[in-house]
Predict the structure.
Amino acid sequence: MPRLRFDSVKAAYAKKAVEVAEQGRPSEYFGEMVFNKTAMFKYLPQDVYRKMVDVMDNGAMLDASILDAVAQGMKAWAMDHGATHYTHWFSPLTGSTAEKHDAFIEHDGKGGVVEDFSGKLLAQQEPDASSFPNGGIRSTFEARGYSAWDPTSPAFVMNNTLCIPTVFISYTGEALDYKAPLLKAISAVDKAAADVCRYFDKSVRKCRCYLGWEQEYFLVDRDLYMARPDLVATGRTLMGHESPKNQQLDDHYFGSIPKRVAAFMRDLEIEAMKLGIPAKTCHNEVAPNQFELAPIYEECNLAIDHNMVLMSLMKDVARRHGFVVLLHEKPFKGVNGSGKHCNWSLGTDSGVPLYSPGKTDKDNLRFITFVVNTLAAIYRHNGLLKASVMSATNAHRLGANEAPPAIISSFLGTNISEVLDHMENTDNLVRILSKHELRLDIPAIPELMIDNTDRNRTSPFAFTGNRFEFRAVGAEANCSPAMIALNTAVAEQLVLFKQEVDALIAEGEIKEDAIVKVLRKYIRYSKPVRFDGNGYSEEWKQEAARRGLDCETSAPLVYDRYLDKESIDMFAKMGVMRENELVARNEIKWETYTKKIQIEARVLGDLAMNHVVPIATRYQSVLLDNVIKMETVLGDDEGRRLSEENIKKIKEIAERVSEINRLVAKLIDTRKQANRIESEREKAVAYHDRIAPMLEEIRRHLDKLELVVDDETWTLPKYRELLFNC
Ligand code: ADP
Ligand code: MG
C-alpha cells in the first residue's frame, strides 16, 4: 500500500475552519458548564448558598446538614445542562493522560439518569478501584478506598456527565491520588506564609497559592498518526529520520497559525471557557506543529483540575478537526520537546502578591523574605524537586540538552542577585531612626525589574518578575507532584525561618534586625542553587557537581530522593504524606517507568521485524533483480560495473537487517532477564541501564534504512509528513 497522501484531507479541514461559528462573547459563555457561585445562587436555598461560599472562599468546615440540599441543587443544575450521569472525578496515581482518566469515569451501571443523588452520594463514594495502582498500600493496609468531595473545586458537566472533583483515599487514611496530598501541601504553605506575613502586616489571616501553567503540545494529522504504530502505542516516534528541515529557521515560533489549527484552537478555547478555564494565550511554539495554550493563573488546586480537564478536552476537540494531540514530552527526535511551565506564587487574602516588590522598605523586606526562603527550600530539596518532575517520558527532555537541564538551579536576574549580594556583604542593614521609624539599607527594586532581555531560558526555576517559573514539569504530567514538593518545601522553610526569627526576638532583638539576620544566613546557605549562566553547558554540569547539587539523570535513581531522610521528615512534619505513602508512591513510579520502556521495546521490536525488515528486504529484492537483469543484458562485467551503487545498497540493507535481527533478539532476551527481577526499583534500573540504550541502537539502523529504501515502498509516514502538515 502506498503511503497516505493527504492534501485533500488538509483542504477539507481548512474548509471546516471557515465553518467554525462565532459563539458569542466569552463573557456570555464563560463557566456555563460549571456549578459556580452564579449557578449555586440560582439552584441552592439562600442559607445553603451562603454556607457553601464560606467553605469555598474561607476554607470553613463543610456542614453535613446542607449536603442533601447541595446535592439536589447540583443535580437539578446538571440535568438542565444535559447531564445524564454523574461521577466522582479524581486523579489516580497512573498519571494524567485523558484516556486513562476517561476509563475511570463510572456511570450508574444502568445507563440512565441517576435519580437518587443524595448528599451521601455527593460527599463520599467507594469506586471499584481494584485496578488503580496503589503501590501495595491497599493490599497491605486496607482493601477499600473511597473518594471524597473536594468542595473547593467546583463540579462541572463534561460529555453529559456531572463531574465532581474528589480526593481518593484508603480507609486507613493513605492518599491514593494526587489531590489529597496536594490539598495538604497547599494548606501547609498557606499557613506558614501567613504566619511570616504577619511580621509585616498583622491583619493577614490567610495566604493563597497560585499556579499558571503553560501547556505545550504537538498536533498531527489523525490519518498519518494512525499509520504510525509507535505514535499510537507510546505517544512518540520510536524511529524516523530527521526531516531535512525542522526548526533550524525558527520560522514557526510566533509565526502565523495555519487555518486548520486556528479552527481547532478557537474551538478548544470556547469549550475550555465554557468549563471555566480562563484560556488566554494560544500560539505557535519553537518546533513545527508545536503549540501552546496558557490560561490566566488561578488558585493552585483549581488550576491543576483545569489542566487535567483541558488535557482531556484537547483530545476530544482535536478528533473533531482530524488531528491527534501529542502530549508526550518528546514525540520527535531532533525536535524540541514539550513542557508545562508552572508559574507559581503566593499572595495574601487581601490580594498582596508576595513575590512582587513594593514601594516601602517594609514591602521590599517582605518580598526579599519570600524570595530568599523559596531559594533555601529549592536548594535544600533540589534533588526531590527533580524527582517530582521525572518520568520515563520527561527524561527525554531533562538533561537532554534542550529544555531544562537535569540539575535544579534558580535564575534571579541581575537586579535581585545584586540585592542579595548587597545584603550578604553589608552589616547593619537596619538603621533605627526613632521609636516608630527605621530605615533598611536595601537597594530599591523597580517593579518591572525583569524585562525580556533579562530572561534565562535555560533555567529550570526562574524568577520572572512576580513569580517563579518551574519549567522542568513535563507536558504530559499532572502538575500535582511538582506542586506538592514545591509547596511543602517552601512551607517547611518558612516555618524554620519563623522559628529562628522568633527566637532572636525573644532574646531581645528588634524584629527587623532579627529578620535580616536570619535572611543573611539563608542567602549564604542557598547560594549554590543560584545560577545565571547557561544551564546546558558542560561547565555547568561540573560546577553544579562541585556545588553539591543533585546531578543524577537516571530516572529510577532520581526517584530515590523521595525516600531520603530529609524528604521523609519534611513531608511528615508538614502533615502532607507519611513514610508508607512515599514508599508506595515510589513503587508505582518504578513500576510505571518499567512499563513505559517495556511497551516501547515491544513496539520497536514489532516495527523492526514486521515493518522495516520486510520493506527493506522487498526493496533489496527489487535491486537484486535489477542487477541480475543488467548482467544478463550487458554482460557480467559491464552489468556489474554499472550496478555498483545498487550493489552497495544491497549490501548495506543486508548488513543492517542482520544487525537489526541480532539486536532485536538480544533485546527480547535482555527484557526476559529484567522481568525476572523482583524489586521494582532494580527492575526499573535494569530497564534504564540496559534496555533503553538498545532502543537507540536499533533505531539507528532503522533510520538509516529509511534513507536507503525508495520512498514509494516505505509505508510509514516520515517526519517531514508528520511535522509539516496541518
Ligand atoms: P511566558 O510564555 O512569557 O512565560 P505566558 O503569558 O505564556 O508567559 O504565561 C505566563 C503564565 O504565568 C500565565 O498563565 C499567567 O497567568 C501566569 N502568571 C502571571 N503572573 C503570575 C503570578 N503572580 N503567579 C502565578 N502565575 C502567574
Ligand atoms: Mg513561560
Observations:
- The longest helix spans residues 579-634.
- The first strand starts at residue 85 and ends at 89.
- The chain is about 50% helix and 10% strand.
